[in-house]
Amino acid sequence: MTAALTTAQLTQEHRPTLDQALEAIRTRAYWSPHPEHPKAYGGESEGGRRSLSVAEGQAAFEALRGKRFELDQPGTDGWAGSEVSPFGAEMGMEYPHPDIEVLLPAMRAGMPAWRDAGPETRALVCLEILARIGARSHEFAQAVMHTSGQAYMMAFQAGGPHAQDHGLEAVAYAFAEQTRTPGAADWSKPQGKRDPLRLRKTFTAVPRGIALLIGCNTFPTWNGYPGLFASLATGNPVLVKPHPQAVLPLALTVQVAREVLKEAGFSPDLVALAAERPDEGIAKVLAVRPEIRVIDYTGSTAFGDWLETHARQAQVFTEKAGVNTVVIDSTDDYRGMLANLAFSLSLYSGQMCTTPQNLLIPRDGITTDAGPKTYDEVVADLAAAVDGLLGDDARAAALLGAIVGPRVQERLEAAPGLGAVALASRSVAHPEFPDATVRTPLMVKADGARKFWEGADADAPYLSECFGPVSFAVAVDSTEDAVALLRRTTRDKGAMTVGAYTTSPEAERLIEEACLEECAQLSLNLTGGVYVNQTAAFSDFHGSGGNPSANATLCDGAFVAGRFRMIEVRRPAE
Amino acid sequence: MTAALTTAQLTQEHRPTLDQALEAIRTRAYWSPHPEHPKAYGGESEGGRRSLSVAEGQAAFEALRGKRFELDQPGTDGWAGSEVSPFGAEMGMEYPHPDIEVLLPAMRAGMPAWRDAGPETRALVCLEILARIGARSHEFAQAVMHTSGQAYMMAFQAGGPHAQDHGLEAVAYAFAEQTRTPGAADWSKPQGKRDPLRLRKTFTAVPRGIALLIGCNTFPTWNGYPGLFASLATGNPVLVKPHPQAVLPLALTVQVAREVLKEAGFSPDLVALAAERPDEGIAKVLAVRPEIRVIDYTGSTAFGDWLETHARQAQVFTEKAGVNTVVIDSTDDYRGMLANLAFSLSLYSGQMCTTPQNLLIPRDGITTDAGPKTYDEVVADLAAAVDGLLGDDARAAALLGAIVGPRVQERLEAAPGLGAVALASRSVAHPEFPDATVRTPLMVKADGARKFWEGADADAPYLSECFGPVSFAVAVDSTEDAVALLRRTTRDKGAMTVGAYTTSPEAERLIEEACLEECAQLSLNLTGGVYVNQTAAFSDFHGSGGNPSANATLCDGAFVAGRFRMIEVRRPAE
């Protein structure tokens, strides 16, 4: 039997990390306590924590396949599981299916003690959960890979240390927010010659109620951890409803959280899993339950809008679809620009909410350090850069990963109907998983004359999100038009990211002003090893929460402040 | 012509105050820069600012009566005004009625420069606005008195320095929230033996859009300033839509804000007034305009719920109706308790969102320092305490103020139909304003047996808000039942305040736990000069935002964090 976790142990191990995280969100300099190099794992760390090596992670994953995933949750009325790896293999796990009439009250029962533990203990318990997840990063990598279709390296980094960074960032924000009000205060109001009025006031951060995390297929941990840890750290139990095709990474997370909560003396039912049967639509049922007071969601705009409209009893945080734009005005590093964009378009087959979709290029061409380039030349050179990057099948597969599901594949196959194909998509044979669907990105040429996108009834294909490895090389009449089109799609459809390449101070000013006014995060002139589709915890904001692609950013004060309330009790001072 | 305000002047005068406010919201100790003694005003302060005396304030108010209130706003298509003082006199002011198709674009035009000014300059400009309002506190007192019906002293204190405190508190929270992210950061990510990845990141707090303040009749400045200043300090223009019967206090506010903004070099149109014609219902039109992105509202639950449901394009902050409870279990200061409650029930004729309504008293009586008291004795003694407090007409009028409007009077007149009257309401002759409707509070006895309030179809009159000078002395079967009833009304109808009197640690624990779980602010054993219906800026939270009476508290991080977004621009480091 594992020894119980004491507050002293937790403080000694995790308080310094919490303090560093608090400092990092203040300075927004680079920081991470979670190594992203795969070889940093395996064996024992300085602190004495054992972590799994690549091979151990794979063995742990294999041991889970084809079995029931036991969580010992109250209110289990059967088992559900239908995951199929995008790399071809059946997963075969079954997960507890909840009887919510039993599970929700059990989750609520743990709330008072968790509330009374206070912000610091809650943060430290969350950090212990993250540390144990971190030690199993290679096991999580397998789980993320075989549910999302991400290639191993990306599944490991984005699904492991980067997701843990984002969880920790949310814990830091939650701790800072809850502790900006002191636990108690003595209030003494002067009354001239009379005695002052004196009160003793206590302030307690109280949870809203049960939080519901609705997970997504492509980034179950990266997109799930901010909401999960923000809610838990602010005192709310968390019910995790994973995407039916991406259960394992979050089931493992729930398992670790329950284990740590129990060892720390709290109810393990503060975190529970709600797996669903095919086509059950359990999220819609859970989302409007009165016990559910916080919802975090990543997915389609349609369901995100439904949640915002109907789950009025809850604080709803959504990340939805958007149309990400890159404005190409000019550059002093043409090769660097092409290489950077080729990588951004290829990474995980463009199945990221942050992947560029619309590349806006002046019809008359651009100026570059390699001389003037026509629109056609830019498009051809970018296509060639993608082809070059993905010329070798093994390397291509390691970058592209697998197509996550049939809908993305259908969109990709329909894309040639949207315009002239500037870059065709080809199938890549995966060296290890022959059944995986691996496809290179496709680029379509499109006319960006104003008549195609101005006005309420404009219906150019690039005005909507086409999620997956499809991008549009849009020939615009000028950089001013590019900025106007950027404004239009950002205002109407939202954007998680905007990129731009320019050497012109005037164009830069125009683009920056558009992003400030339309609330979009901007990356300028990226030509090296940072890509527009990547955001770093503690420093970057993922989305802005100010355009239709998301109503929240990961992570800021607004993301945590509404998850709890501060309750005051005032008494005459003794 | 007034000299332009420079940043240096603003910094010298107001930065120390801002710093003290930031410290106060951290410690929550007593603090206020706005004197609440009427005699502190008149003549010149140490800083050289002239303030109006009582007589000067009255003269300034009289000079406004019967005239057009010029604001020099763009888009004025006529004049509107229908205020009648609850103290009897016609006001006769007319205010600009907006052509919103002209006014809204003019307000938006001022946004970029106001955004670019940054959080500190915005805060300092807000503090200058508050300081000029403060110097005219006696003029505002007249305006608040003759619109709300508050007696002069309360109109002066609550409508003047206390409202200014709450505005300043919101500015402090807004400043703190916007500056927790630095303006810029250098990010350098190690890459082993290769050069680090380096980015320069800038972060700009950007406004949501135009904020709409929907004012209330009873506390136009106190309830209006938090939202107004929180929105303005976070970069949003603010359109002020006052209650048609309480325009003047907010029109004066808009006038001062426009004057200061202009002197500081910004567009005066960042703050504008939207007066309406009788029964025009302009709030409903404005609330769903796409330009409106933030709404602050105080008023009925029906319209508050309508706003939350329909104004989906905006961040909506509402304070609505509630049922405030006092649990009377036992006391060691019976006379102090009676005096304190009598004052709370009488102040401003109970027309406060924080006035107690349900007094829950065990049917079998309570223990006190004056011996055991039966339910009937407690009720009779409390009635006598109110009678004693209000025995003298002049003193009564100074405490009660006037009934704000016919609806409150109708409810008061209907109240004897709700149960046996334990304390009858009487008319008080106002020594100065013979036409004022001044009424003492009424208390009805009610049966608090569980059968009257348990179950979904229970309809005891005390289960709903009866806004105005009506309270219920509810005979409950036990303190446990009192707590259960408190939970029921708080959960279903909300509560801005909860009070309790007890000497029993067990009862105290029960009550406190109920307030923590139902998210209500609790005042325990108040027997002196602090009253359950009063909250002090910088220290107390007004409402919790966690029960149906309000979706926000005044003031915390959540109240300001959603009013702006943080936009990042990242570039390769040079």
From TrEMBL, chains A, B:
Single biological process term from Gene Ontology: L-proline catabolic process to L-glutamate
Disordered: annotated span: 32-54
GO cellular component: cytoplasmic side of plasma membrane
GO molecular function: L-glutamate gamma-semialdehyde dehydrogenase activity
SUPFAM superfamilies, alphabetized: ALDH-like
UniProt domain Aldehyde dehydrogenase: residue ranges: 99-525
Keyword annotations: NAD, Oxidoreductase
Annotated protein name in UniProt: Aldehyde dehydrogenase domain-containing protein
